[in-house]
Write a structure and sequence with these properties.
It contains three helices and seven strands; from the N terminus they run ββββαβααββ. With 135 residues, the protein is an alpha+beta fold. The chain has one domain. It has a four-stranded antiparallel β-sheet, covered by helices on one side. Strands 5-7-6 form a three-stranded antiparallel β-sheet. The radius of gyration is 13 Å and the shape is globular.
């Protein structure tokens, strides 16, 4: 996993790809596994930390830009997007990288800016329809 050792007392401030919302991300452990903790206002989401390596590897294999397609858990994800991959039974974890039932979505919104900050991807910052690709 790429080095991401920000703690709850020193989270990394980030913005969604369009730059319209601010949030923070830090690393933690839950049930013995490394997780990413994403705090958006008072909402706290958890993602399996291995998503960083897995998404980077998938994007490398994909070899081109991929649309983000962020969606809440209750809404279907657009096929062929980062969001759809982040909940697909065909990804390396066999389903959701999001770990909190009811808040497992928005993978394509909150994980890509962290990957950009870690130097793992290029990310577009348009009002809508943003894409990412591995570096």
């Amino acid at each position: 996993m790429p080095l991401f050792d920000r703690t709850a007392t020193d989270p990394l401030p980030l913005k969604t790809p369009p730059g319209t919302a601010e949030y923070t991300m830090h690393a933690d452990t839950k049930d013995g596994r490394p997780i990413l903790v994403c705090t958006v206002g008072k909402t706290v989401l958890h993602y399996d930390a291995r998503c960083l390596d897995d998404l980077h590897a998938m994007l490398k294999a994909h070899g081109d830009w991929m649309e983000l397609g962020g969606a809440d858990e209750q809404k279907p994800a657009k096929e062929g997007t980062v969001e759809a991959w982040g909940r697909s039974p065909d990804n390396p974890v066999g389903g959701w990288y999001g770990l909190k039932k009811g808040l497992r979505g928005r993978f394509g919104v909150y994980v890509p800016p962290l990957m950009e900050a870690l130097g793992l991807c290029e990310l577009e910052h348009n009002p809508k329809g943003n894409r990412m690709r591995a570096v």
